[in-house]
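As a representative case, we now present a protein record of this kind.
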Amino acid sequence: MAQSPKNISALMCELSVALAELSEKMSNLAITLENHYLDSNAPESTATMEAARETIEKARSS
């Protein structure tokens, strides 16, 4: 079943808004987690730091 271009355009607009909201929520979550970590004063292990670096590199290359 084919969708009219007008319906597809409206869906794309909704998707764009939803993705922008998700992006903002993910950013807020990252800030909250970072602040929680900084407040915890927990010493990080070498393995934790390496895992974090690997995750950051994977995210950058995506």
